[in-house]
Amino acid sequence: MQPKKQLSLFDLSMIVVSLVIGMGIFRTPVNVAAKAQIPELFFLAWIIGGLVAYCGALIYAEIGSRFPVTGGYYKIFSTCYHPSVAFAINGIVVLTNAASMAGVTLIGSEYLSSVIFPQALQTDFYRLIVAGITIFIFYCINLLGLKASSKVQNILTVIKITLVLTLICAIFFSGHTETITPIFKTASGSLPVWSDYGRALGICLIAVTFSFAGYTQTINLGGEVKDAKKIIPKGIKVGLFIIIALYLLINYAYVKVIGFEQLKTAHSIAAILAGKIFGPAGFTILSAVIFLSVLGYVNVNLLSNPRAMFAMGEEKALPSVFAQKSKKTDVMVVSLTTFTALVMITLFFAQTFDKIVNYSIILECIGTASSAATLFILRRTTAHLDKNSIYMMKWYPVLPVLFIAFYLFVGISIYQDDPSAAMNGLYIFIVFIIIYFISKIFNKKKVIADAAEGTALK
């Protein structure tokens, strides 16, 4: 069954924004400030992150234009490399996203519970109930079809953007006067050299890079976008432009209002901005911002991840039942239900969330770099396409090479900062490769057995 073309430019742009802006921007600036030590390095890291993300937007705009299919993030690996690589990377992405979604929903429920429940009911049990109900509601919305879920996504994203812009306005209410001049200190206590700054920048870029991560999943929806070859490039670029502008502005607001030295160790930085504008009601406003960010994140993950599972089902990396759609709503019911179940199960074991995410960080770098590299292959295999009907990025191949080099640099920085997490991520990748080939062997034996049984019956 051919997918229905339902997503417009506005729909896709809002999906890009929600894939990227979750909880990170309300937390990671503290980590980046602590590692940067000086504001110049702090802002440089965010500017570089923004430029790299926009470069990535151009790359994935062309990939999406040349290869507009449902579950595109799986199929570019399968087509350009090997199905085992596609299965390993996408399997880990799906599991990590399920864990991330469970953890983020739990955090959001904590903020909401503190506002709507009396002190006696602000327990782990009730937070878990709120998180579970939230996920179930959006599961039901997605069962209605892509049109319903994309409309809800648009509303949530517009509200989220408005609230983030409101927080940025804190710079007009209070400016912090820095009393301590930030100084860059080395481990040895000696004067810093360029290599010290470079090492610090690399560690900063780990948090920055993953604050910008997520937009690559946009190509999972390629088969359901109207006039995909034109709309996908525009949607990715518009979405990233909005994200970069919001990130740079809110980081400027953090430094301006809180002060750079205080930012290094601050807690609830978004609450501080909200408090400057709304006074005592600031925490309630912050809770609304956090919970709406969570709702957008929940919905967009229920939009994207089942499509990767659908693509795996189409290519028999998962059982073919995952490739089934409802004839009435065009919904991938089995894939959607399975992913929601994974999230619900993980929700009850959320204490493992940090470990799962740490192990997958290195894979995010490998996945992004290797998926961007498929552009070199797609340029050859789709050279027959009409150049006027697709998007072609400028400065090729320079920008893709620089983009891939950047992610390799971040990957090396991750290894230097946490070798254990990096190696464990690679081990998990290898395990998924092994699982793929074992499942292929079993599937092949099953096909042979079924064929033999059919012959015997004749």
TrEMBL record:
Question: Taking the first listed entry, what is the main subcellular location of this protein, grouped into a coarse class?
Answer: membrane
Localization of this protein: Membrane
A Pfam family that this protein carries is AA_permease_2
Which molecular function terms from Gene Ontology are attached? Answer: L-amino acid transmembrane transporter activity
Q: Which UniProt keywords apply?
A: Membrane, Transmembrane, Transmembrane helix
The Gene Ontology CC terms held by the record are: membrane
Q: What's its membrane topology?
A: Multi-pass membrane protein
Task: Mark the transmembrane ranges.
Answer: 7-26, 41-63, 84-105, 125-146, 158-177, 197-215, 236-257, 277-300, 331-350, 356-378, 398-415, 421-438
Q: Which PANTHER family match?
A: AMINO ACID TRANSPORTER (PTHR11785), SOBREMESA, ISOFORM B (PTHR11785:SF512)
Q: What is this protein called?
A: APA family basic amino acid/polyamine antiporter
* Species of origin: Pedobacter cryoconitis
> The organism's lineage?
Bacteria, Pseudomonadati, Bacteroidota, Sphingobacteriia, Sphingobacteriales
